[in-house]
């Protein structure tokens, strides 16, 4: 049994149909559990006060904004190299989810920045690279909509995705490249001085698991929709021929 | 029980509210599209089956 067998749309629909109900339950448990624990059961931070609770929505969303693009990058490469349609459709399905996570990270970051930095927005390296990443998401979605031929659209969006990966990487490592930014370093780190305190760590981990699972669930769900849309298109073309 | 968020109540509630709205939005759009496409595909498959029978 090879992983590539699931590039067959029929097998993908069968497998995803089986695992989606279970995955939806686990996603709801982790997401609601993580956010509820973070909101209700964690203390205020000694410097940031109750705004520390924004951590549980901001950090997972920002992580997934970048990781969604990384998943699209891998799926696009698979499309360009092996021409598996399911991988192109999975990349297409992931884009609106990634854009949503990026928007959440930008909005919650602005809300958090106002009381901490005294400003809703700064042209800080991380903030700016995240804004550019969001624009890349919008461009990627628009490009899929603009081209009628699905294979040509998959080719061009895959190339756009490869170019946009530079900004996805930049969003992740901008803090390290330029030290003059306002944005703090990573909350989760092997460095004990930088790593978030234990009392905040477990709810954060659960919340991150919830966001990761929500992404996987929605990508499977939306890829199934894209496969159906492709099937409808071919049926309509056969009817009109 | 609602925790005491002090002077940052508006900020924290706004951050969680915006997240809830955006996540609910992407889930709702995904479910609605899936439902619509499933219905359309079923209709087309039936049409195709009836044509091949006839």
User: Average pLDDT of chain B, to the nearest integer?
Assistant: 91
Helical region count of chain B?
1
Strand content of chain A: under 5%
* Global geometry of chain B: rod-shaped
How many β-strands of chain A, per DSSP?
0
Instruction: Give the number of DSSP strands of chain B.
Output: 0
Biggest chain pair interface = A-B, 37 and 33 residues
Computed over alpha carbons, the radius of gyration of chain B is: 22 Å
Q: Mind describing the biggest β-sheet of chain B?
A: none
Any idea what the shape of chain A is? globular
Question: For the residues shown, what is the average pLDDT of chain A?
Answer: 88
Rg of chain A, alpha carbons: 20 Å
Low-confidence regions of chain B: none
SSE topology string of chain A: HHHHHH
Measured as a percent range, the helix fraction of chain B is over 70%
Look at the helices and sheets of chain B and give the structural class: mainly alpha
Estimate percent helicity of chain A.
over 70%
How far apart are the termini of chain A? Answer: 38 Å
Largest sheet of chain A: none
Quick description:
Chain A is mostly helical and 241 residues long. Chain A is 78% helix and 0% strand.
